Amino acid sequence: MEILLLERLVPEAQAWLEARHQVACRPDLADDPGALRRELYNVQSVVLPRKVSITRELLDFAPVLRAVARTSDGTEDTDLEACRDRKVRVIVATNAHVRSNAEFLLASLLSLYRRGVAGDRPAVSGAGRELHSSVVGLFGLAPSAHAFALMLAALGARLIGYDPAVHSTAPIWQRLGVRPVGLQDLVAQSDAVAVQVLYASRYEGFVNDKVLAHCKPGQVWVGTTRSALFQHEALAKALADGRIEAALLDNVEPGFVARGSPLHALPNLVLTHRIGSDTRESHVRASWHVAQRLDGILSRPRSGNTQFDNLISGPMGLEGGDSGFGRR
Q1: What is the CATH code for 3-96+279-323?
Q2: Per-residue confidence (pLDDT) for residue 302, from 0 to 100
Q3: pLDDT for 68 beyond 90
Q4: Are the C-beta atoms of residues 134 and 157 closer than 8 Å to each other?
Q5: pTM here?
Q6: Where are the domains positioned within the chain?
């Protein structure tokens, strides 16, 4: 079998693949680990939903596997080292979700500025705010931040930014119209902080008491990065004592606000579960991205070079054909 789909692609992209390759669609295998392992033995490529982790153990059951693919935009559930060792290519539709995540961040920020609009958060007394002339701090330069910065600039916001992996002299800051600052200054000067860090395990608990001690009064936070970036107790205290007026976070891990967590039942914390990237348009872009990459891999002989096909390329880290940003 050339392609095993545990997640359906949009019909047009799936039909295009089926006309070129042997394809089996088995979404049921995502909930049956034993059956999945048995099915992988003769599979050359597989498209997996986010809930199925790619581990070294799983790869042991797939001796002829050439590629693993996801239509989602993260690699946190993928053992990249194991894939490299097995010469299995990793396809992630990162740029397919740039626009959808950027629009989600903008919608989240606007909803918190117009108090009481977001989710079940109770209305707060007093007038809302406008983004025009507000200082928005971009915490992280993930691809969605590039599109988000252009949206904010068009609305008249003033932009400052910090990324632990990007030097303050890097040309990207000037290209985006963002003034680079240290993390302490970003938190102290921003009316709103948008978090879209490309997460790595070394950033766990990165936003802690020391960082949040400098919050500008009345500040709001929005984010699409993993919630593990936040130290739970520190965020809870900042939300409880008013340093952060409200926060709206996507991409939260299980247990983040479970009973017993200091964040449990806080009225000014709104959580969504990875819906930032979930739009019809992003599904189309992601499906075609995966379909075309799989076709390219399976249509040529297997080589000894392993590549990780994240396609963060083009101007400002965007590839127009995948991101959809700037297209009509």
Answers
A1: 3.40.50.720
A2: 65
A3: yes
A4: yes
A5: 0.84
A6: 3-96+279-323, 97-271
Shared fold status for 3-96+279-323 and 97-271? yes
Least confident of 145-154, 268-277, 311-320: 311-320
- Fold for 97-271, please state it: Rossmann fold (3.40.50)
pLDDT in tens, 216-252: 988 999 999 888 999 999 999 999 999 999 999 997 7
